[in-house]
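Need C-alpha cells for this chain, all 328 residues.
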Amino acid sequence: MRFHIQQESDIPASTQLYNQICFAIAARHYPPGHRLPSTRQLAMQTGLHRNTISKVYRQLEIDGVVEAIAGSGIYVRDNLNKKNLKKSLYNKEREIKPPDQEAKKAINNFINLGCTLQETKEVLINEIDWRMKCGARIIVSTPREDIGASMLIAEDLFPKVNVPVEVVPMEELEKVLSNSNHGTIVTSRYFLQPLEKVAKQHGVRAIAVDLSDFQKELKILKELSPGSCVGIVSISPGLLRAAEVIIHSMRGSELMLMTAISENQSRLLSLLKASNHIVCDGPSLSVVEDILLKNRSQLMRLPKIICAKNYLSIETINQLKKEIGVTN
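Here are the C-alpha cells for all 328 residues:
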C-alpha cells in the first residue's frame, strides 16, 4: 500500500495521511494485527517529516484504530481479540464430519489444555449462550451527524443475515440497550472506540466491519483525463469527506471534485450539470437517475454514472455471520 501526499494542497498533509491510513485499515489492506510501516519507512515514501507521521499515528491510537506495542511498532487493533477457545469448532470448508465427532474432538482439545470436564462444559455453554445473545439482532450505530454510514452498512447486511437489523444513532444507543441488551453492535472502525465503552457497560459486543476496497471505482478515477470533473454522491457525509481527501491525495488538482448529499437536490443538480463522471453509493443511485431524467433538457451531456453498490467487503459480512452464529 502506497500513500500519496499532495504537498501543495490546502488539505494538511497529516489529514491526507490520516484518511488514507484509515481507509487502508477499513478496506483491510492492513488487516487486524498487521504491523504498520515505521515512521522512517513512511517518511521515505511520502516525504513527510517523521514527527508528522508520529502525530498521525498518535491520533489513530487515540481514536482506537491502532495500538502501539513498546519496542515492536504500531499495529492495527483487533477488536475481536480472537482466542483459541473462541474459534469456530466446525469449519464447513473442511471435509464434513458428523457433529458428535467434532464435539468429541473439541472436548479432547479442552482436556489437553488442562480443563476439567466441568470447566469444558461451562466454557462451551457460556460461548453458546453468548453467541445466541449476540445473534438475536444487529444494531448498526454511528453518530447522528453521519447516520448515513449506518444506513449503508445496514443496506449491505439486511439481505445477508436472517436476524433483525436496526439503525440506531450513537446518541440513542444507551437508551435502546437499557431496554434490551441482546444483540451485536456493528459500526465502522472510525467509530468503534466510543461504541465499545457503551457496549461494555451493557454486556454486549461491538464489532467493526471492514469496507469494500473500492478498487474498481479508484481504478476508473486514476485513469480519468486531467481536467475531468467528478461528482461524488452519497447518503453519508463522512464518506464524502473521506473520498474527497483520498481522491485529492491520489490526483491532486488534476481532477475537479464536487460532492453532494443525495437529499440535497439543488446541490445535486448543480453537480450533475458540471460532472463528466459521477460516483455514487447504492442508495443514492435511484435519486441520481431520477434527477437526471427530470432535468434532461437542462443538461449539455449525460454524465457517466459509476455506482459503488457494495459498501462492505464480502469477507467482513461472512466473518460477522460466523461470529453471531448465522449460517445462511
